[in-house]
Amino acid sequence: MMLAHLGRRRVAILMKSDVKMERPSDIQGLLYMSFKDNVEEAKVSLVKEMAHQGIRVDVKTL
Prior knowledge:
Layout: H1 2-6, E1 12-16, E2 31-35, H2 43-52
Parallel strand pairs: 1-2
């Protein structure tokens, strides 16, 4: 539902790196960001990608 609402360029999937998950074919090409132990590990990468897409985020508030 978020994919339909936001559009492909505004959706990222955060997934734990040691989880074996089959990616559905209808969401191929989306941005996948992995983390090892805590989702906080992906925060910097996610903010960089959001900035690349033109979405401004104040890192101090995260």
